[in-house]
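Kindly inspect the following:
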Amino acid sequence: GTQQVVEEFIARGLPIRYYKRETNAGAAANVTSALRLGKGEYLIYLADDDILITDAVADTIRYLDNNQEVTCAHAPWFLYDEVAKT
């Protein structure tokens, strides 16, 4: 139901461009394709089980703005194991 969900977000006014492959190319190819097709000043990869830490993202954007020679960065992240609760 991905396409339906995306269409609902678009109907709410979110600026989403949706691309669907004819065949499943796997995770690595999809991430590469998404980054290649992305437009805008910044691109972010966010998986379905990821949660943005907004302050960390804002700090990373400030870092990129202040260091124009840097073309790629990642915000700090935390790993939480739902099974082990750690």
User: Anything to note?
Assistant: The chain has two domains: 1-39, 45-86.
